[in-house]
Here is the input.
Amino acid sequence: MTFSDLGLSPALVKAVAEKGYTKPSPIQEKAIPHILEGKDLLASAQTGTGKTAGFTLPVLQYLTDTKHPKYRPLRALVLTPTRELAAQVYDNVREYSKYANIKSAVVFGGVNAKPQIATLKRGVDILVATPGRLLDLHDQKALSFKRVDVLILDEADRMLDMGFVRDINKIISFMPAKRQNLLFSATFSNDIKKLAAGILKNPVSVEAEPQNSTAKKVTHKVYKVDKKKKTEFTIKLIKDGNWNQVLIFTRTKHGANRLTQNLIKAKISAAAIHGNKSQGARTKALKNFKENSIRILVATDIAARGLDIPLLPHVINYELPNVPEDYVHRIGRTGRAGAAGEAISLVCSEETEYQNEIEKLLKEKLESNIVKGFEPTDTAPPKRAATQSKGSFGKKKKGGNSDSSNQNKPKRKPHFKGNKPAGAASGRGRTGAPKKKRF
Ligand code: ADP
Ligand code: MG
Here is the structure.
């Protein structure tokens, strides 16, 4: 199957070829034909599976196929939960539409609205936006939604988490009732289904991976560590492994700042990215990280969601998330596009419950390790021998770890299986073909 087979025009096919895509990803293969037919669609696939092109390409095709009035009213709107994601989706829109006669723009908060207003006034076919700034601009009459034919909600699950439902409904209230609606999400929760039921009309649903499955080729590793020694341990991991591009998750903004400072003190270049940082600082940090001019990006969950950081070899959970689904999103940052990755979690005694919740969600036990000198000493004292520590430290340890005994069994199952049956898409289930890499 090629992009041309899916019904995309030579101009779009040429642009994706230049991006180095050789064939459509599974979610693209499933979603694109329905979107080209004009159907409403609910699509879910794990992070890093190419959802952006899955909706952008067919929408660009629609925009080029249909005639537009000279003044170029807004005809397609992509809503994203975060500024970074808006910027990133827009980059893709621009790249994919390179050879098509399409005008695109992006608007988000935290930066001057004036240039955005000027751009909108010149006429835009497709706009990528975060809800808050978009409504501001609409209030200022900088744009109209009256001619919108296609509405796309990207990362819809995170939009829900971030409380954007009211904004979304308000935006929709300004749109014509007759339009195409596309909803893309990493997860397929009941809340998403509820949101979809309110917005989509007779939608087709497509799923490229089973619900909440973690990325393939990702090795999960837990280090049981003393809470007070997490920073020291993190530095050791980075230095011993000579890791040069690591994304680290912390639970709080304050924690992200503190860890960043400590890394810098240890002569490891790092920057933090979270909601209290200015837009300029966030963009700069991400850019530097992508360009490899800083080694470590420390992020909170919300800031990191949806960022496209290709081929990231290591993700460290400095703290486990208290929402188990966030673990899946976090590790979606590693092992992207078929590359191998390692997800490392530093778990102190008081986080054991979070680990249990994550294992329940994943239906897998995470391999636990203890490294001498960093054993958990806080609360719940160790009871029995745990699994052996290997990995980057090369030594075997018999640490006494134990927060809950059933967790210490040496389960040798570092890799998640990639060949679970795909969730059946309504009406167009998978063929029986063996599953290959994501791309
Ligand atoms: P998602 O939104 O599902 O998390 P993205 O749309 O951000 O994923 O895509 C993840 C990465 O995969 C990006 O770097 C993108 O350029 C790349 N990609 C998308 N489609 C393909 C494809 N068909 N072949 C190869 N790489 C692709
Ligand atoms: Mg995405």
